[in-house]
Design brief:
This protein has 174 residues and is mainly α. It folds into two domains: 69 residues, no CATH class; 86 residues, Arc Repressor Mutant, subunit A (Orthogonal Bundle), CATH 1.10.10. It has seven helices and three strands; from the N terminus they run H-H-H-H-E-H-H-E-E-H. It has a three-stranded antiparallel beta sheet. The N terminus is likely disordered.
């Protein structure tokens, strides 16, 4: 809740709104400065390699400082943290997968150990993902065929994502 003088300052300000917003941002950055991490600067122009004279040097672009909305609630990674490789999206692997295949793959990523191994039973996976046994078998077979995982009952082994070169070769030779 704002105090009376503060509320009056915002309500009766004769300066343009743009100035007030800039002032608030400047105050926030100044107050939060100790929380920021040093970010290495890049001397290469913004967007280098993407097209000629239109490029602005990075130093003239506004810098976005990522800071938590609530510093008291920043998540921490538990010792048993499962992560999904970003290349699943960026290399467009996910576009070749059905919804059931994505669900199974992400579930296995979450429950596997550091070597990509897990041993959940078919029944337990079906219970967790709301799959039928037939749906699980189809999703698993498709992921094995695409090179995302290996399966030998009861062990699932997640594999490294196929390289883009392997995908190009695979699409030309079915």
């Amino acid at each position: 809740m704002k105090t009376e003088p503060e509320a009056g300052r915002w309500a009766s300000s004769q300066t343009p709104l743009r100035h007030d917003v800039a002032h608030v941002i400047e105050e926030a950055v100044t107050l939060e400065a100790p929380l920021r991490r040093a970010v290495p600067t890049v001397s290469q122009p913004h967007g280098a390699g993407t097209g000629g004279d239109r490029l602005k040097p990075r130093s003239t672009c506004p810098k976005i400082i990522k800071q938590p909305v609530d510093p008291e609630r920043v998540r921490t990674m538990p010792a048993q943290f499962g992560a999904v490789d970003r290349r699943l999206v960026y290399q467009k692997h996910i576009r070749r997968m059905s919804t059931d295949e994505i669900a199974l793959y992400v579930f296995l990523q979450c429950v596997s150990d550091a070597e990509g191994l897990s041993f959940y039973s078919d029944e337990r996976i079906c219970e967790e993902l709301h799959f039928s046994l037939n749906g699980l078998w189809k999703a698993r077979e498709a992921l094995v065929d695409a090179g995302f995982l290996l399966y030998r009952r009861p062990i699932y082994q997640l594999l490294n994502l196929p390289s883009p070169l392997e995908l190009a070769h695979e699409s030309r030779h079915p």
